[in-house]
Amino acid sequence: MKIAITAAAVRCAAGTALIPPTRCYASPHDEAVALQIPGVARVDGVLEDPRFPDDRKGSLAAAVLSALPRPPRDARVGLYLGTGLSSLTPDEVARDLYPHIVADAGSRHFDRVAIARDLAAHHPAPRRHQPERVTSELGKDLGAIVTETSFSACAAAAQSILQAARAVHRGDVDIAYCGGHDSMLHAIGYLSFVVLGALSPTEGRPFDRQRDGFLIGEGAGMLALRREADLGPDDAVLGWIVGGGTSVDAYNVTHPHPEGDGAALAMKRALHDAQLAASDIDYVNAHGTGTPVGDQAECIAIHRVLGAVPVSSYKGAVGHTIAAAGAVELALSLGIFKSGTIPGTPGLREIDPELPANIVRDPTPGRVRHFLSNSFGFGGQNCALIVAAP
Amino acid sequence: MTRSVHVVAASLFCPAGIGTGGLGPARPGVVPDFDPIASGVSRKHLKTMTRAVQLGVAAVHAALANAPGWQDFPPERRGLFVGASPQSGDAEDLVPALAAAGGDPERFARDGLPLIPPLWLVKGLSNNVLGYASAQHDLRGDNGNWCDERLGGANAIAQAVHAVAEGRVDIAIAGGADALVGAESVVGGPCGEGAAFVVLVAGGPEARGIHAGAPSEFGVEADFGELGAAAIPVAWVRAWLRGGAVNVGGIRQDG
Questions:
Q1: Where are the domains of chain A?
Q2: B33 in the same domain as B156
Q3: Which B residues, 156 through 215, put their C-beta within 8 Å of a C-beta on chain A?
Q4: Residues B170, B3: contact at Cβ < 8 Å?
């Protein structure tokens, strides 16, 4: 497989990183470091898209997709999006649920009939928990003949990119728009990660001796993919997707395999798919969330499969963009090919000596022929993508 | 590399019944006599599964039970492909938090949120069928989870066909699960629940081949009401169990 990335665009807490087809984004890492802040990793300046009221992640997806070039006339287009759970926002709680608590013989419960009646009245088409509606609406804009919505938790965007690349490779479509979008910056989103023990009360610092979780981020990342044979002389190539692999931990819905078995299998599959040796990979963009067990398992897996390859993570700067992470971080990594710099790990101060990986704290000069990007999700789903230099 | 792909087993849970008992007339509503524990769902995890997830996990279990020899394939070569809608944690679990807030969003944030069960959000993840079923049966290979309404189950089966044909897995379990009973007012019509999965392997010239094409046909059975991500797999498996030519949602089987 050798599929061209002809354009890419990102919105994340590190700012807008539009990667036009004529040049690579110069230095994503510098901007990411400058903007790292404790607290919310929020994208400012996103206007609500009227098609997606109260759905911030839908607006993020629309904004980023609109930054990519439109498809050529007569091209068969596919849209492959990774998406996340649209949970309740405080507004929805107040509007849809508060009024319907009833006391009954000393207990409290919901008047479900009243809730359903009001939801139907307010939203003639069911709106909540319909993430596929974003894919469908944006697919219509593009004239897409195929739309797929991947829900693989934090591996969703990476899986969508891999499915899109395979569809282009098979010839199902001529151009694939792919990536992911998510925003869980609301009360229940926060709480959910706090009670799971995944959220840091201070800051994101992947691979640090003192790491204690991640910050929630939000964002969207999108790529345009085409076959090499379809490229014209003026088409730019930001990188080539040459392989990918997926796996399932088959271990625990909320905890990774402690030895990183599933992650290692995904990376091995990606190498096999790309017909590359471990020594061909010059950099790993880690999932690197900053949770104690997650970083440990990933480092073990990387060491087992790829040895002492340089490893870093963007999440200390952009937060964990959940379902969007695989696309946001892969797109940011494309800048490596032009800059000749292996990114450091924002937020990281003291590398945890117990982690068996070659972790890069500060940006380092280095030529990268291929990088591998990891994404792992609740449910145990893992995805590794390999991108070759243009 | 491409290989021929064949269906060797299937499972069916729909409002008409379970297994071949589900081949009767379509009607909306619940799956009659569905007992998750008796259907292979772990008692330990039952409380953290929505009804749709219970149906999906049971249907994966049943599909594999109908496929003797599936354990001969190494775990890394077993794929799982699922169509499922995002779920909701049980709304009743929010009642204590909302009651503590008394209608005040600030009090909800301060006093209410800590009263919500820790796994409330996780319970709502669309990929829970995949997470629980893969752990139960040691399915570690290629995988995916799609939430594209009715198209979700069709996308899952189509991608499983590709995975077997392209040699990424040697056996794939693929289908969809959903439970929409109770959402009639929101959906705007009758609703049902169900789950159906097929087991796909490579080779076997005696079997009928299965192919994935553009998902242009939505051959759902309207009399079930809205079955969501289960709609196309249920229609597909009912047709397959009857032995007829199958061409639903772009997934075609030779007649």
A1: 15-87+129-388, 90-122
A2: yes
A3: 159, 162, 166, 168, 182-188, 214-215
A4: no
- A20 and A69 Cβ atoms separated by less than 8 Å: no
Sheet hosting strand B246-248, strand order edge to edge: B210-212, B251-253, B246-248
* CA separation for the pair B120, B158 (Å, rounded): 31
CB atoms within 10 A of CB B246: 24
Do B239 and B217 meet the contact criterion of CB atoms below 8 Å apart? no
* Minimum Cα–Cα distance from B96: chain A residue: A108
CB-count burial class (<10 Å; 0-12, 13-18, 19+) for A339: buried
Q: b/e per residue, A300-314, with b = 16+ CB within 10 A?
A: bbbbbbbeebbbbbb
Scored b (16 or more CB within 10 A) or e, B39-68 reads bbbeeebeebbbbbbbbbbbbbbbbbebbe
Does any CB of chain B come closer than 8 Å to the CB of residue A121? no
Distance from first CA to last CA of chain A, Å, rounded? 14
Whether residues B135 and B115 share a domain: the answer is: no
Asked if residue B162 and residue B234 are part of one domain, the reply reads yes
Give one DSSP letter per residue of A98-128, joined into a string: GGGEEEETTEEEE-HHHHHHHHHHH-SS--T
Residues A160-170: tens digit of each pLDDT? 999 999 999 99
Structural domain boundaries, residue B96: 89-123
Coil, strand or helix at A42: coil
Question: What token pair was written down for B5?
Answer: 């792909």
The ipTM is 0.93
| Chain B residues lying within 8 Å of A148, measured CB to CB | 146, 148, 155
Answer yes or no: are the C-beta atoms of B63 and B173 closer than 8 Å.
yes
Q: Which two structure tokens, joined as six digits, stand for A201?
A: 């009360």
Q: How many domains does chain B have?
A: 2
> How far is A33 from chain B, CA to nearest CA, in Å?
31
- State the smallest CA–CA distance between residue A154 and chain B in angstroms: 11
- Per DSSP, what are the bridge partners of residue A310? A358
DSSP state letter for A10? E
Q: Chain B partners of A119 at a C-beta cutoff of 8 Å?
A: 185-186
Q: What is the 3-state secondary structure (H, E, C) of B160-224?
A: HHHHHHCCCCCEEEEEEEEECCCCHHHHCCCEEEEEEEEEEEECCCCCCEEEECCCCCCCCCHHH
Give the CATH number, domain containing residue B242: 3.40.47.10
| A154 belongs to the catalytic site | yes
pLDDT tens sequence across A350-375: 999 999 999 999 888 999 999 999 99
SS3 B79: strand
Topology annotation, domain A15-87+129-388: Peroxisomal Thiolase; Chain A, domain 1 (3.40.47)
- What are the mean pLDDT values of chain A's consecutive 10-residue runs (390 residues total)? 93 56 27 34 68 84 90 95 78 76 80 76 58 90 94 96 97 97 78 78 90 88 96 91 97 88 98 98 97 97 98 90 94 88 90 97 93 95 97
